[in-house]
């Protein structure tokens, strides 16, 4: 008798993102690019026109972003892109560095050989982007590199928490990068150290290297003018 179990089992399709989720992601991208800097007021009607949707998904997208701290809903002021005080930013960065480092430590123990190859290929691709001085391409590959490590940790709660923390820091990230950009070559070398530690399954070294990398990349500039630019 022929086994038809596999044929009879319907394949699950990945759910399509809701319109509100699409608006949220597009707004996040605009915040990351500096289109809406910290403190910028976000009007539902303007956003609806920008993204060619009604105000309902815009309102839901803003509600979602308020839960992660990316935007703030204030009485009589409306919705604003979050502005974090310097001391709050430093504390948030410390937490994110520990979370990212924990992810790297777990990845060093749990990542498969295939995942190692993918991570190395991504790292090597970054070298080509740096050679072309393509900052936008670098940012994309940088995110991919970190996301692969998050996936390699095999801890979805940790990965989701890191994602939420990064969304909270998003308005600051672009402003800080403009005020004190980290050279791409420096980040590339730090990634190389992290990669070697993960490939060699040196969990403690992977933790320390990732923690130092995140703190270095997100360090708030001490220069008064640069600090003001980062948080204005």
From TrEMBL:
Keyword annotations: DNA-binding, Transcription, Transcription regulation
UniProt keyword Zinc present: no
Keyword hit for Transcription: yes
Listed Pfam families: FCD (PF07729), GntR (PF00392)
GO MF terms held by the record: DNA binding; DNA-binding transcription factor activity
Domain HTH gntR-type, residue spans: 17-84
Superkingdom of the organism of origin: Bacteria
Record's protein name: HTH-type transcriptional regulator ydhC
Organism: Tanticharoenia sakaeratensis NBRC 103193
């Amino acid at each position: 008798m022929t086994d038809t179990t596999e044929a009879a089992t319907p394949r699950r399709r990945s759910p399509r993102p809701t319109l509100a989720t699409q608006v949220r992601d597009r707004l996040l991208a605009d915040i990351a690019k500096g289109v809406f800097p910290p403190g910028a007021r976000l009007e539902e009607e303007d956003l609806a026109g920008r993204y060619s949707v009604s105000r309902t998904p815009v309102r839901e997208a803003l509600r979602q972003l308020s839960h992660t701290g990316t935007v703030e809903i204030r009485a009589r002021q409306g919705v604003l892109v979050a502005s974090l005080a310097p001391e709050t930013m430093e504390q948030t960065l410390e937490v994110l560095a520990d979370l990212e480092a924990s992810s790297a430590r777990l990845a060093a123990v749990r990542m498969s050989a295939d995942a190692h190859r993918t991570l190395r290929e991504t790292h090597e691709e970054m070298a080509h982007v740096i050679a072309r001085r393509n900052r936008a391409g670098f940012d994309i590959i940088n995110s991919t590199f970190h996301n692969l490590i998050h996936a390699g940790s095999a801890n979805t709660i940790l990965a989701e928490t890191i994602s939420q923390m990064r969304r909270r820091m998003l308005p600051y990230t672009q402003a800080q990068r403009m005020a004190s950009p980290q050279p791409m070559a420096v980040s590339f070398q730090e990634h190389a150290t992290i990669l070697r530690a993960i490939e060699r399954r040196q969990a403690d070294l992977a933790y320390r290297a990732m923690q130092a990398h995140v703190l270095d990349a997100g360090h708030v500039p001490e220069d008064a003018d640069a600090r003001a630019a980062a948080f204005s």
